[in-house]
Every structure is written in structure tokens, then in C-alpha cells.
């Protein structure tokens, strides 16, 4: 007796967002206006994001601004804390590594906080290299481009770099697991 079976398969692809803060660099070293910036690499399949990969550099003061703006927009909902500020130790490797880990943890928590994830400023911060003033103008509709336009323009101009970073991060993780969270 010949039997035929029908099998229905349903594949559910869960959204993920992976973020890595890496490569702290001292800019204007030896100058009174030196500062450290960090590379932020984002990889996601979430529909919440316009670009699926991005790579930008941001300094600590920009993170402070971002948190302040997200807290303002979040109302009573708590926004994750940033690692502390230091005026004296930014050339110390241990301090830089501690801050890098703190900034990465901050972004991981932010990306799992719904009220923060819906903030356009966060998306522009992570997916464009726009200065803070331009981010504010864009969100307020004071630019000739929309938030989506800004992200797509940056993504297309930065595509080769972001793809190279994605390939590098899958091949070489420096012994660290890239945090992927299910949304």
C-alpha cells in the first residue's frame, strides 16, 4: 500500500539586532581638544531599521546627547545609563576598554527598549555620520531630506565599507561573541 503524506513547514525568522562598539581612537592627540571616538557596527534583519548594516564613528559626547534626547522623548520610561565620564584617563587602555564595553552595553539595552527603538534620532545616530545638529534638524523636518533619505544616502555611499566590516566581524571577532538579541 502506497501512502502519501503532506508536510507543511512554517519557518519563523526572528528579528535580530547585533551591535558592536570597537576600535577606540584618540583624535587630535596631543592637542587641548583631543577626544576619543568609537566605531559602531550594526547588523540587523529588523524591519525597524532602514539599512541592514551600518558602520559609523561617534564620540562619547554624542552618546551623552543621544541619551538626553531619548530620555526627553521617552517621558517617564527609563533610558539605559551610560558609563561614567572622565576628563583625565582617556589615554589609558584599561579606561578605553571599560568605556567601550559600557557604550556597547548601553546600545544593546537601548536596542531592546521599544520606546528608544522608535526614536528617529537613534536611527540617524547609528546609521548615518550626520553631526548632532543635522540629526536634530532632520528629525524636526528642517532639512530637504527625510530620516529615511539620510539613512539610505549614507548606506549607499558607505556600502563597501559596511560590507567589509560585516565580513571582518564574522571572520575575526577578537574572541568576543557579537551580541545578537531577538526582538
UniProtKB/TrEMBL annotation:
It is found in: Cytoplasm; Endomembrane system; Endosome. This is PX domain-containing protein. InterPro entries: PX_dom, PX_dom_sf, SNX10/11. One of its GO terms (cellular component) is endosome. Keywords: Cytoplasm, Endosome, Lipid-binding, Membrane, Protein transport, Transport. Residues 16-132 form the PX domain. Belongs to the sorting nexin family. It is a peripheral membrane protein. It comes from Gouania willdenowi (Blunt-snouted clingfish). It comes from the Eukaryota. GO terms for biological process: intracellular protein transport; vesicle organization.
Amino acid at each position: 500500500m502506497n501512502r502519501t503524506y503532506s508536510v507543511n513547514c512554517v519557518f519563523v525568522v526572528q528579528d535580530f539586532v547585533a551591535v558592536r562598539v570597537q576600535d577606540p581612537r584618540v583624535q587630535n592627540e596631543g592637542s587641548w581638544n583631543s577626544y576619543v571616538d568609537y566605531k559602531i557596527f550594526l547588523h540587523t534583519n529588523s524591519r525597524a531599521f532602514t539599512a541592514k548594516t551600518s558602520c559609523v564613528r561617534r564620540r562619547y559626547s554624542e552618546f551623552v546627547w543621544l541619551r538626553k534626547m531619548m530620555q526627553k522623548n521617552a517621558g517617564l520610561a527609563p533610558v539605559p545609563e551610560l558609563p561614567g565620564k572622565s576628563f583625565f584617563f582617556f589615554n589609558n587602555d584599561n579606561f578605553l576598554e571599560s568605556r567601550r564595553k559600557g557604550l556597547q552595553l548601553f546600545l544593546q539595552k537601548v536596542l531592546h527598549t521599544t520606546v528608544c527603538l522608535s526614536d528617529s534620532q537613534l536611527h540617524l545616530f547609528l546609521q548615518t555620520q550626520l553631526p548632532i545638529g543635522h540629526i536634530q534638524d532632520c528629525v524636526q523636518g528642517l532639512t530637504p531630506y527625510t530620516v529615511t533619505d539620510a539613512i539610505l544616502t549614507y548606506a549607499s555611499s558607505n556600502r563597501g565599507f559596511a560590507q567589509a566590516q560585516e565580513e571582518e566581524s564574522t571572520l575575526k571577532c577578537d574572541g568576543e561573541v557579537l551580541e545578537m538579541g531577538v526582538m
